[in-house]
Structure formats: C-alpha cells, structure tokens
Amino acid sequence: MIRSVVIGTGSALPARRVSNAELAEQVDTSDEWIVERTGIRFRHIAGEGETTATLAADACRAALTAAGIEADSIDLIVLATATPDQTFPASATKVQAVLGINDCVAFDVAAVCSGFLYAVQVVDSMIRSGVAKRALVIGAETFSRILDWEDRTTCVLFGDGAGAIVLEAQDTADDGGRGILTTKLHADGRHNELLYVDGGVSTTGTVGKLRMKGREVFRHAVTNLASVMTESLAMAGLSSDQVDWVVPHQANARILDATARKLGLAPEKVVVTVDQHANTSAASVPLALDVAVRDGRVRQGQIVVLEAMGGGFTWGAAVIRF
Fold it and tell me: Which end of the chain, C or N, has fewer beta carbons within 10 A?
C-alpha cells in the first residue's frame, strides 16, 4: 500500500521575540495574568520584510534540508494560512517561486487553526491517489497583523511563525509500516460568531480584526479535540495508551491539560510550545512537531497524533507512525 511518510520537518520564527512584560508596557495586562490564564510567556512578531510567505519558505528550506532532498523534487505545495500575503495569488505560489521550483501544483488552504490538519489530509489523499509523490505541507501565519492591539483578551494570545513537513509516497508492505495512518476532519459553521475576523473582501472590503469569545471557544475545544482524537485512533485500530506523542494546536495551556485529562493521557506525552510561541494558528502544530523532532523526543517508528481546532469551527486529527 502507498502511504504518505514524513521524511523531514522544519520551522521558522520572526526575529523579534516579545515577552509578556514587554506587552504589559503597551496593553493593560501583566505577565502573571497572561501566564495564569494561558501559559504563554513569549511570542514572535513579524517585522518589516517578514511575511507569511517568507516565513513559510524558510520553514520549507529547513524541512528540505532535514529530508536531504532538493526543492526541485517537490511536485506539490499546500500552504495552510488565514493570513496570506495577498488576496490572490495563493501564497503557496510565492513559496514555490522563492524555492526555485519551476512547475508544481501549489495552492492555499483556509481553515484557520486547523488548517494544517486540513492540508495534511488533502495532500495525503493526493499522494495515495498517485497525483503527487513528494509534497511540502505548510502552516504559516502572521496573525499579529489582524489583531486588535487594544483588546487585551485577544492580542496577548497570538504570535507569528511557520512550520513545514515533507511528505513522500512510500510503498508500505504491511500495516506496521511508517506513514499517515488516518485523518479525520470536521466543521460546524453555526459557531461563526465565537471566533472570527470582522472584515473581508466581499463584506467590508477591509482585512478586519480578530474577535473571540474565549470561554465558549474553550468549552468547544476540549470536547471537540478529545472526540476527534478518539475517532482517529479508533479508525487506526489504536488506543490512547499506544500513543507516544500528542502534538496539539498550541492555543492555551489549560486546553492542552483538559484535553489530555479527558483522554487519560499522561501530560508528559503532550508536546507543549505555547509558552514560547503563543498561538500561531495553522503554524502551531508543525512548529511544535519540528521542535519535538529536533530535540529528539519524536523518533522514527513512534505513534504521533496531531490535532487542532479553529474558527469556523473546524477541527481535526491525524495519526502518524513516524
């Protein structure tokens, strides 16, 4: 059987690192208030010349180097983002050009914080069907540019960054082989008003700012993430005690803790980077995965579960034998 195998990971962060104390000089907040409610201590903010596409390209270069392959061997690029460089063309095509790939399929996916999971399933389907053999799957965001910096309930939560993986089609002889085992996605558009941006091309003609009802989002996140992880593991014929690592969307430390408890997972099996990166939306899962791969926690042959939930609501999970 053909499976999509992760052969390289990479990530990129803006140069500017902002602490809670620095934010407290601009907004009515404090380090104690932010840490207690979210677990966040730092975030990176894009500066002049740093965009979603430039960060994505840097993450891709790192992933290609880790995989030991050249960019021109890539035949598919899918970039998950809610903050593209332009309304069109797709930021994925800008990444393609920067990497020097003359021709490949390249497009964006918009599913906010769960966008990377959506992109993974799209690419996995294309690889399994024979459309692509090697793909870059990217999550990249510059959320700092859609934040209301006078709203302390939202502006302290988000940061900028990018993460990428290289997926390769490999012929796996048996069910014990490496690769993506299952993916499961959901969406429920009835909850638009709980997490959204109050602008858009066809409505206001403006970019708009992020708006969120945090308490309601928290409640849905814990329920939906635990449910989709259970679903995806069942589809793979696995139980939670067979999971080596969970790499979750890095939204809030309390959501991570509550989801792990609901699933009966030991906290030490959950990769946590929210304290250093804050919520980087579609970038958060591949960013956290790259951190865990590079520090030696995630190793070949282990069972890794990726999960995320974002505005829409959209949510999903993927089970990978790394």
Answer: N
